[in-house]
Specification:
heterodimer; A: about 230 residues; alpha/beta; Rossmann fold; 4-stranded antiparallel beta sheet; 8 helices; about 35% helix; B: about 525 residues; mainly alpha; 2 domains; two-stranded antiparallel sheet; 2 strands; about 0% strand; globular
């Protein structure tokens, strides 16, 4: 099933817990420059699908490949090519915002980590909190820090699980532009969202997660979110 | 504004621009990131801690350690004197036992048990693990993971080695009365080295090179020769053999430590963090929850037909649910059976153990088995809303939850006392006392499993011996009190050597009182977890 142009391929992927599927089979493909939205009602299994594709939990059956290779979060190839931003509120309690981002920048061998970190702090509105530890941040600021860590590093596939959560409208707009820029630069994005506006402005298509998973246009996906 | 402060002298810098994009993943860079994290964390923590606080912490810890050591030395000395006075079977609970276990075999079996416990706990805690933050920020980096996981594992090796060595000293002093200090030190060092080797074996299991079940079986088999070594340490070579075993296990493990999967590293870290927090707050229920592990998939479908049957009312439905949950969630029978075997081994050994010490061992075993039977009650205590769903009085809910632990503990105590009666202790009525005691122990198990966590904000009470955290101690002993009380008549029967009818009646009264106390008073089973929900 490997397509040389595909960044992410999922074929008859069944996901769930303890051998029990939470939704229908997922078959999808995301190529470079594309943004695939993932939508569904609460509990439909959206996060389970992306957690499985991100290698955080095993699939029940089926196949998922990143750049032609099976999903393996322990391989260096996977870690280099896949950036994933989930709502994990896990931080080093004694490291500042800047130091967290420097870890990621340096760990991915960015050429000028200091400047890249400064740029991300500026973009995500964290410059004034650069020396703060995570406990001193608001939940929205911690979310921004996680997003900054996802965007600062190079990757071929960016997985975002409801990135709009806890962000103010201005930051949501900035994030929309950032996702589009990332895709324009040749990246592929898997975007779980409940925000129809974010979906329409970024996604090229959308997977509706339910008992029978459907691939629809971004507009139809947005309509599903809005309950139309 | 960008206001990055340059790193201090000697501090790891992440601003060096030597590597460029696309550079291969490196061990050196991973090590640099780990050093960076540690140094900056330490620097921050130093700003939050005053010298006075640090001094007070160190002073208090040293004084507490000194007190604990003094108590241990005094206890071991007294015990050794008593065993020296009467090194025979005469003082045993089963003086005329047809079966006699040679003392060296008992000590070897107990040493094996200690090593097996280290293996089990090490496997639950990792032993190679990362914290949640390390898992989130280090593991996704495309770098060699060895520098990320090895520092913690090395610290664990040192802690286990030192702890096992120190812990074996009193055991060696009590179990080998004829040797000098140097030989005790040699035996303790041998056990410490064997323990480090066991930690390495647990690490090898984590690599997943062998399927879990055969891997565990092979590991338990490998412990047997290690358990023999401390008893022969006087010859000198066993220490060398234990060290060699450690080297043989640890060299390949340290080389491949970076290959442990992220899922496994994070799992170990989560369990370690949960357990450490439970130990810090002296919360045994949380500790047991943290070490429980996930139920085996095969157990998930147990009693499906039994659960699906129609029930005549809510109480029958609740009982059916609790029985099913017990069958699915309760860990294997191996632990209670091992405790049972250990109890029998202790009483039939010709080691000169005084009867009171054998009784204390039985008491500890009973408390250990009783605590382990509270899995369902501990789980349900976290979800008090579930108990409120059914139109049942609180006592009915508690009696449903009590049923299976009481039956299981009655069966365990009947087996234990029945075996002791067959060996010549207590007479034919002893199993009846044991069965009745088991029911009371079930009440203690439920009381302990549903106790609310200790409130550490309450001030200690002033006493002539200094401040005592009475409220916290009372909370910590909740459950154990009823279990111990329920075992007392059975213990008296064993001590006097005859299970008299009056003792059977006393045991019945005590167990009934224990059950009534737990059913009709105290906190709601739900309240144990209400503060966490």
């Amino acid at each position: 099933m490997t397509d040389p142009g595909a960044v992410l391929e999922a074929g008859q992927l069944v996901v769930g817990y303890g051998g029990a599927p939470v939704c229908g089979e997922v078959t999808a493909e995301v190529r470079a420059g594309q943004v695939l939205g993932v939508v569904g009602v609460n509990g439909a299994g959206k996060s389970t699908v992306v957690q499985t594709i991100a290698g955080r939990q095993p699939a029940i059956s089926g196949d998922a490949r990143i750049l032609g290779l099976p999903v393996d979060p322990d391989s260096v190839h996977f870690r280099r090519e896949v950036a994933a931003v989930f709502d994990d509120d896990l931080f080093f309690p004694s490291l500042s915002v800047t130091e967290h981002l420097l870890l990621v920048a340096r760990g991915h061998s960015l050429a000028d980590p200091g400047e890249r970190v400064a740029a991300e702090l500026e973009f995500f509105g964290l410059s004034t909190r650069a020396d703060a530890i995570p406990d001193a941040l608001s939940s929205g600021q911690r979310r921004r820090l996680l997003l900054a860590a996802g965007f600062i590093r190079p990757s071929a596939l960016l997985i975002l699980d409801e990135p709009e959560q806890r962000l103010d409208p201005g930051m949501r707009d900035a994030l929309t532009g950032r996702i589009a820029t990332y895709a324009d630069g040749g990246g592929a994005v898997l975007l779980v969202t409940h925000d129809p506006r974010l979906l329409v402005r970024t996604a090229t298509s959308a997977l509706v997660i339910k008992d029978d998973v459907e691939l629809v246009s971004a507009e139809e996906g947005a309509g599903f979110i809005a309950g139309l | 504004m960008w206001n990055w402060c340059p790193p201090r002298k000697g501090q790891a810098s992440l601003l060096a621009s030597d590597p460029v994009a696309g550079a291969p993943a490196g061990t050196a860079l991973a090590g640099e990131l780990v050093t960076f994290t540690r140094r900056h964390s330490r620097a921050y923590n130093r700003t939050q801690t005053s010298v006075g606080d640090a001094f007070a912490d160190i002073y208090t810890s040293l004084v507490a350690l000194g007190c604990a050591a003094a108590i241990a030395v005094s206890f071991v000395g007294g015990l050794r004197d008593e065993m020296t006075r009467d090194n025979s079977m005469a003082a045993s609970l089963v003086a005329g036992s047809p079966l006699v276990l040679p003392a060296p075999l008992l000590w070897t079996l107990l040493t094996y048990g200690g090593l097996a416990a280290i293996l089990t706990v090490a496997r639950r805690l990792g032993p190679i693990a990362v914290t949640g933050a390390q898992g989130a920020w280090w593991l996704p980096l495309p770098l060699d993971r060895r520098p990320m996981v090895l520092p913690t594992f090395r610290r664990r090796m040192v802690s286990v080695g030192l702890g096992a060595t120190l812990g074996y000293v009193p055991f060696s002093i009590v179990t080998d009365l004829a040797v000098d200090v140097a030989e005790h030190a040699l035996a303790a060092a041998t056990f410490g080295a064997a323990s480090v080797a066991v930690l390495g074996i647990a690490g090898l299991l984590q690599l997943g090179l062998v399927a879990p079940r055969p891997g565990r079986a092979a590991a338990l088999l490998a412990l047997a020769p290690l358990a023999l070594l401390p008893g022969m340490a006087a010859a000198g070579w066993p220490l060398a053999a234990a060290v060699l075993a450690g080297v043989v296990v640890l060299v390949p493990l340290l080389r491949r430590a970076g290959q442990v999967t992220a899922t496994e590293l994070v799992r170990g870290g989560n369990v370690s963090g949960h357990a450490a927090s439970a130990v810090f707050f002296l919360d045994t229920n949380e500790l047991l929850r943290s070490m429980a592990g996930t139920p085996r998939p095969a157990a998930g479908s147990r009693a499906r037909r039994f659960y699906a049957r129609m029930t005549p009312g809510p109480f029958a439905g609740l009982v059916r649910a609790d029985v099913t949950a017990f069958l699915r969630l309760q860990p294997l029978l191996a632990v209670p059976l091992l405790w049972l075997a250990a109890c029998l081994a202790v009483v039939v050994a010709d080691a000169g153990l005084p009867a009171w010490l054998q009784l204390i061992f039985l008491l500890v075993a009973g408390c250990g088995v009783a605590s382990g039977m509270g899995t369902v009650a501990r789980r349900t205590a976290l979800l008090p809303e579930l108990d409120a769903l059914l139109p049942l009085p609180r006592a009915a809910v508690r009696s449903s939850r009590l049923l299976m632990p009481a039956l299981a503990l009655a069966a365990w105590m009947t087996l234990l006392t029945g075996a002791l009666a067959l060996l010549g202790a207590g007479g034919p009525l002893l199993p009846a006392i044991g069965a009745l005691a088991g029911i009371g122990m079930g009440a203690g198990c439920l009381r302990g499993a549903t106790r609310p966590p200790a409130d550490w904000t309450l001030p200690p009470v002033d006493t002539p011996m200094g401040p005592v955290p009475r409220a916290q101690l009372s909370s910590l002993l909740r459950g154990l009190d009823v279990t111990v009380l329920s075992m007392l008549p059975a213990g008296i029967a064993l001590f006097v050597g005859q299970a008299l009818p009056v003792l059977v009646m006393v045991q019945a009264a005590v167990s009934l009182a224990a059950v009534l106390v737990v059913l009709l008073s105290g906190t709601n089973p739900a309240s144990g977890g209400s503060s966490r929900s």
